[in-house]
Design brief:
By secondary structure, the chain is α/β, with parallel strands linked by helices. The chain is built from 10 helices and 12 strands. The strands form 3 sheets. It has an 8-stranded parallel barrel with strand order 3-4-5-8-9-10-11-12, surrounded by 4 helices. A two-stranded antiparallel sheet has the order 1-2. Strands 6-7 form a two-stranded parallel sheet.
Length: 370
């Protein structure tokens, strides 16, 4: 039996296989509201046969968006737009759906990637960004506003309010975004957090705000609701956040009842030196998995079925995340199942596409014609 296609549970959420569709920003929302693009995009992914679909980074307040075209979940209007998309998808897919709640911090107010991805000034449609410390992401950028106690409480409450909305929408799980140089990662890393209060300096202090957010969100959700987190395990910069500090964070999260940890890396500094080779982040997931009983998701240039199978079968991670690879091949789980001799869910409208030499690929199917 394929390890990749064996079932797993994230808290009380049962998944049919260990393929996670990782969050992928689409920069296609209007005033934070999901559009028909999201219905088409997420609807297609929900028919892919993966075990779990995580909706892209969704801002908890308007200034927490990466770009003006980011998804949000901060108002009745943004919630209603999500409800429309989810209702349509649920008619045809039973795949569990999670959402990544996020705040972009000092990396907010950016252009979409296809427009250059650079900081947008307030006089060109952007806004003032916030961060742990008034240190810009890039040396030529305008410094962000350092969050004071009032600002920290506002952001924390925004995460709580968005989590309540997500649960009300019937979303099956929440992933908190503490990776890729965004706000919670900015608190963790000594490169971006140079505060001199209880939220900066020592590792204990730098962990404080992300853990407060986790605790606050968990407190408003049902006891057994699936709540996990995504982290960058390394800044890839000397003197920055690293895997040893990530393990300390992991242990603190596990004590708090975290359901899973999604291990990525980088994003907090333009000085990062990342070796982009297949599975370049799996080593981090492996080291973290050795220290925790939480399910661990590995991600990063995992593109081949055999590669993904090996990661899970060898115990380097419990699940694999696929992002750009599934944009390129929307039926990646089907093709992986075919290679590994496994079965995968597919909509009945597509059953006739099952290859002649893969009679059990879609499980028990019945096709007839006159």
């Amino acid at each position: 039996m394929s390890a990749l296609f064996s079932p797993i549970s994230l808290g009380n959420l049962k998944l049919k296989n260990r393929i996670v569709i990782a969050p992928m920003c689409q920069y296609s929302a209007v005033d934070g509201q999901a559009t028909d693009w999201h219905l088409i995009h997420l609807g297609g992914l929900a028919l892919s046969g993966a075990g779990l679909l995580i909706i892209e980074a969704t801002a908890v307040e308007p200034i927490g968006r990466i770009s003006p075209a980011d998804l949000g979940l901060w108002s009745d209007e943004t919630e209603a737009a999500f409800a429309k998309v989810l209702t349509s998808i649920r008619q045809y897919s039973t795949m569990p759906i999670a959402i990544q709640l996020a705040h972009a911090g000092r990396k907010a107010s950016s252009q979409a990637p296809w427009d250059g991805g650079q900081l947008i000034s307030p006089d060109h449609g952007g806004w003032e960004t916030v961060a742990p410390s008034p240190i810009p992401h890039g040396p030529t950028e305008t410094p962000p506003l350092a969050l004071n106690k009032t600002g920290l409480e506002r952001v924390k409450q925004a995460f709580v309010d968005a989590a309540i909305r997500a649960h009300r929408l019937g979303i099956d799980a929440i992933e908190l975004h503490a990776a890729h140089g965004y706000l919670m990662h900015e608190f963790l890393s000594p490169l971006s957090n140079q505060r001199d209060d209880e939220y900066g300096g020592s590792l204990e202090n730098r962990l404080r705000f992300p853990l407060e957010v986790f605790d606050a969100v968990k407190a408003v959700l049902p006891e057994n609701y699936t709540l996990g987190i995504r982290i960058s395990a390394s800044d890839w910069v000397t003197g920055g956040w690293d895997v040893e500090q990530s393990i300390v964070l992991t242990k603190a999260l596990e004590q708090r009842g975290c359901s899973f940890i999604h291990v990525s890396s980088g994003g907090v500094s333009p000085l990062q030196q990342i070796p982009l080779v297949p599975g370049y982040q799996v080593e981090f997931a492996d080291k973290i998995k050795q220290t925790t009983s939480m399910p661990v998701i590995a991600v990063g240039l995992i593109t081949e079925a055999e590669q993904a199978e090996s990661i899970v079968a060898n115990g380097q991670a419990d699940m694999i995340g696929i992002a750009r690879g599934i944009l390129y091949d929307p039926h990646w789980p089907w093709h992986a199942a075919a290679k590994l001799g496994a079965s995968v869910d597919a909509p009945k409208q597509y059953w006739r596409s099952q290859p002649r030499d893969q009679k059990a690929l879609f499980g028990e199917t019945k096709i007839g014609a006159r």
